[in-house]
Amino acid sequence: MSRETFHKAIELASEHESSITIGGGEPTLHPHFQEFLMHAVWELAGQSNSSGSPAVYLVTNGTNENISLTLAQLAERGVIGCRLSQDQYHDQSLVTDRVRAAFKRPNRELYGSANFRDEYDCRETNGEILNVIAMGRAKKWGNRSMIAGCCGGVFCTPRGNLYACECKQARLGTVYDPRDVVPEHFQGGVCSQLEDYKTDVLPRMKEKEEYRNRVIGHQLADEINGVKL
User: Fold this and answer.
1) Quick one: which of 6, 129, 125 has its CA closest to 60?
2) Alpha-carbon distance 85 to 59, whole Å?
3) pLDDT digit string (tens) for 10-44?
4) Rounded to an integer, what distance in angstroms lies between the CA atom of residue 117 and that of residue 160?
């Protein structure tokens, strides 16, 4: 993803007061990863909610030790949310003990309810994954039908194409022209495969299209009426 495309994606998220997840592949491999991450944190700082959940979230395989240790420190302080992937689909031998230890949260029982570190600690480590949606790289072997719905939420490709969710069944335009995006796409992350999307989101998209067509129609009429014959 280019700088311009990423900046436009962050601009769209900010406009809709939305948090984001930086995904991949492995996001830390991008040559501008650190720059992108700090830009997102800065621009979306106001989107962090009152419960302490940060606006910028990402998942890493932890293979880059130095970057992973920094991400763990940022997540521990609630600047970002970050999860270390330690499931059966990632080579755990490539992750050092230092990285694993950095992402390990202390026992919550040792903390008081008012402890700052516990309240804002946004580190996670995932273990074995039992259900894999049959999409993307798992399209041929995933054990959960895509029809059951993905995790939802507007999905942006590296080229800036926008979809209603990770299923990529409902195209919404691009970050440069998000013509079919409506606020409901950012509210709860409804998968386009589910009935809620048809009842709650599609009607708003139709309203937006009709409004756009009316505006264009008025503009064309004004141009025609303004021509001196």
Assistant:
1) 125
2) 7
3) 999 999 888 899 987 899 999 999 999 999 999 99
4) 36
Instruction: Give, in order, the Cα–Cα distances in Å from 67 to each of 64, 160, 178.
Output: 6, 26, 33
- Residue 89 tokens, joined: 């689909």
Model confidence, pTM: 0.77
CA–CA separation, 172 and 159 (whole Å): 13
Distance CA 164, CA 78 (A): 28
Instruction: Tell me the two tokens of residue 38.
Output: 């700090």
CA angle 85, 48, 148 (to 5 degrees): 50
How far is the C-alpha of 178 from the C-alpha of 128, rounded, in Å? 37
- Rg (C-alpha) for the chain, rounded Å, is 21
Contacts of 38 (CB under 8 A, 6+ apart): none
Domain boundaries, the chain: 3-204
Rounded CA gap, 125 and 97, in Å? Answer: 13
Question: 163: helix, coil or strand?
Answer: strand
CA pair distance 185, 204, nearest whole angstrom: 10
Report whether the peptide linkage leading into residue 173 is cis, meaning its omega lies within 30 degrees of zero: no
CA distance 221 to 120: 56
Is the confidence at residue 106, as pLDDT, over 80? no
